[in-house]
Amino acid sequence: MLLLPGVFQAKKKNGTIYYRSSITFRSKHISLGSFPDESSAHSAYLEAKTLLEQEKKLTPDDYPFDESASLSFSKWVCLVNFKNNGFYIKTPIYLQRKFFSYYLSPTDVLIFDADDLFYYSHHSIMRRGNHLFVAEYGMQTNIHSRYGIKNFARPGIDYRFVNGDSNDFRYSNIEILNPYHGVSNPTEKGDNTYLAKIHIHGDFIIGRYATAMEAAIAYNKAADILQAKNITKQFEKNYIVQLSREEYRNIYNSLEISEKITRYPSA
Length: 267
Prior knowledge:
Elements: E1 7-11, E2 17-25, E3 28-35, H1 38-53, H2 73-85, E4 93-95, E5 99-105, E6 108-113, H3 117-121, E7 125-128, E8 131-136, E9 139-142, E10 159-161, E11 174-176, E12 183-184, E13 194-199, E14 203-209, H4 212-228, H5 245-254, H6 259-262
Antiparallel strand pairs: 1-2, 2-3, 4-5, 5-6, 7-8, 8-9, 10-11, 12-13, 13-14
């Protein structure tokens, strides 16, 4: 059976027939997606053909917001980028000078440094609320972790986006204010100490310390004390790379921990 241009038939494992669409541009064979019927697959081919053949230079912002469109927005971005910049990328990336835009939707656009291009060319970003993640080795990896932002981190307290745009992940725009778990720096009446807290059915204050590093080590010590009491909760420890093992042990042993922690009942 002769199919419409750009369309070929495929079959699922259960025997269901569906249709795929593709186009060749600059000697590159490009898949346009899967469709339930031949007509919509052909429409996607025609929309891609019109986009690639017209002389006018379009951008992702020119996507026709038409419910009847068969070509997906993400594929539109891929084709526009290929046409304008000469590089075909499977994820919805549009190359800019010294950075690139990653389009989750026409109105949800992330910005990254060019150094991250290889990674995001091979990893699709998904959003669930404020959670941005990629699928990696069968797991969901929070992309914030690539920039030193811990899972526990609080915006404005533990990190901040310098220009105020939480979609701008360029390295110069991310400032880590506190790299440690369980540590904060409340500025109360000029107090410049660091507060360490740990959560066990509520927040418990471990103590106040002169430096963020000491507070982080105190948190580790409190976690060790609680685990020795058979508290089953898994506490995420702070990894202190600046200290040797001996330096860490000396500080660890010298730090005082709140009696609420040391006298916490064993499980």
